[in-house]
Amino acid sequence: MNQKTKCDECEKTFMITRIKKENVGLNKGERVVFYYIQCPHCKKKYLSHVESTKVKRLIEKVKKRQNNIKLTIKSKIPSEEKEKLISKNRDEIKELQTEARVIQEDLKSRFALR
Ligand SMILES: [Zn+2]
Question: How far is the CA of 35 from the centre of ligand 1 (A)?
Fold first, then answer.
């Protein structure tokens, strides 16, 4: 991915040759990895994406509920009960996804502040 880009900070162009990686240990054993590109002229960092153990756990919970929905659809329980279970899982998925988004936004702003 040799792509040219213009730095917002110094307005010089540079090639994106690789994405840098930075590990950060946050409180309570949470681990965060920031992936970013950096302007070689002024050293400004641009966040590409962020991974965190907290977000990973939330995504696992989402997957578990998505699987629950699949199993519920296949099961032989009464349809009224099915619908209840499915909508309960869907609501939980929404909450988990919102929580994950909030954490990611928070991490992004932390990155911007450094
Ligand atoms: Zn720059």
Answer: 17
The alpha carbon of 16 and the centre of ligand 1 are apart by a number of angstroms equal to 12
Ligand 1 centroid–CA 95 distance in Å is 38
Ligand 1 geometric centre to CA of 1 (Å): 19
Complete DSSP assignment for the chain: --EEEE-TTT--EEEE---EEEEEE-GGG-EEEEEEEE-TTT--EEEEEEEEHHHHHHHHHHHHHHHHHHHHHHS-S-HHHHHHHHHHHHHHHHHHHHHHHHHHHHHHHHHHH-
Total number of domains in the chain: 1
pLDDT tens column, 27-86: 777 899 999 999 999 999 999 999 999 999 999 999 999 999 999 999 999 999 999 999
**Distance of CA 15 from the midpoint of ligand 1 (Å):** 12
Domain that includes residue 66, residue range: 3-113
